[in-house]
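Weekly puzzle thread! Below is a chain. First person to post its structure in token form gets bragging rights.
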Amino acid sequence: MNSTDGPDSPADTTLVLTGERTIPGLDVENYWFRRHEVVYEQLAPRCAGLDVLEAGCGEGYGADLIARAARRVIGLDYDDAAVAHVRARYPRVEAIQGNLAALPLPDVAVDVVVNFQVIEHLWDQAQFIAECARVLRPGGLLMISTPNRITFSPGRDTPINPFHTRELNAAELTELLVDGGFVMEAMLGVFHGPALREMDARHGGSIIDAQIERAVADAPWPAELLADVAAVTSADFDILHATERTIDDSLDLVAIAVRP
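Winning reply:
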């Protein structure tokens, strides 16, 4: 039984770790989970008292975190198994199935659209952005996080992750949003804080590469690496504005844009 099981979660709604989405509570996945979690934690206050759509809610932990502050959270996912899991595990979230290229919501239906670590999976990113503009109320927020192509798949024409269709750098993400009719409020980046930089030094310069190397080789994890990965918390990541640090050096991009 993995940690997505709970007393009120039927076994047939448990999600399996495939590499397509992150799942909380797994030691070997903890680094990636915490790297995603920090964005939810820091941006959830922007959703306080508002109607929110998480487009691509995956396992649902993020939608549930946002639901602590928001008036209403709709969690949308294309995968039936993910929707069933969210319904069983996170009752505060209204989980629905649908296509991100044709959001199953009426016009001007929500105040915020959240799309964290999803847009890189989409074939028609521009169509998705157009749909976000359609369902958002005037002045509504679109908040997107995505791996920074420059650091995530360096020097490659195609993404390292087989589930990604198109990765973006900061300039490309900005262009996509502006062309879609949005006004940029901020471009932020996710970076390793001091504790993670120490872990990088202990593991040949990159704790990320150390994990990927084991995964690609399907090799056992050294005890020290597993212990370090399991110990990572969301507080070990810094989210900084582009004016504070070079955005092209970031691990993930975090864009906040406004629908006029």
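Puzzle host: Confirmed. Bonus trivia for everyone else. The chain has nine helices and eight strands.
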